[in-house]
Amino acid sequence: MHEQLRTIAVLAIGRNATEQEIDSYVQTHFDHSGEIQGFVDQWGIFFDRRDSLNIARRQNQIKPEGKSGNPDSDELFSEDLY
Questions:
Q1: Angle CA(10)–CA(31)–CA(50) in degrees, nearest 5?
Q2: Is 69 in contact with 62 (CB distance < 8 Å)?
Q3: Among residues 65, 35, 41, 68, which one has the least CA distance to residue 55?
Q4: What tens digit of pLDDT does each residue of 42-72 get?
Q5: Are 81 and 63 in contact (CB under 8 A)?
Q6: Which of 5, 61, 71, 75 can pair with 56 through a Cys bridge, CB separation 3.0 to 4.6 Å?
Q7: What does the mean pLDDT of the chain come to?
Q8: pTM higher than 0.85 for the full model?
Q9: Tens digits of residue pLDDT in 8-28
Q10: What is d(CA 54, CA 28) in angstroms, rounded to the nearest whole number?
Q11: Torsion angle of alpha carbons 64, 75, 1, 11, nearest 10°?
């Protein structure tokens, strides 16, 4: 994904762009680190990853083998659902 973002930056600002200009473009246009991630339920209500994990556990929606990736995480990821 990083390489794809860099390619988009080069196409946007030109092939003669310096590494610093490319990095700056990517950080400015593609930084989503401050956004909250989560899930939307069947009624269109958004829940963050923590609330989603609690809901999925109550509804027995976690895969039978348990959470994927980091089993100790208190957040839900799509890989955790079946």
A1: 150
A2: no
A3: 41
A4: 999 999 999 999 999 999 999 888 887 778 8
A5: yes
A6: 61
A7: 91
A8: no
A9: 999 999 999 999 999 999 999
A10: 34
A11: 140
The percent helix, strand, coil of the chain (3-state, each to 5) is: 45, 10, 45
Q: What is the domain partition of the chain in residue ranges?
A: 1-33, 38-80
Bridge partners for 30 per DSSP: none
Two tokens, residue 35: 């956004």
- Give the count of alpha carbons within 13 A of 76, CB side only: 22
Phi and psi at residue 39, in whole multiples of 5°?
Answer: -135, 155
- Cα separation, 72 vs 82, in Å, equals 18
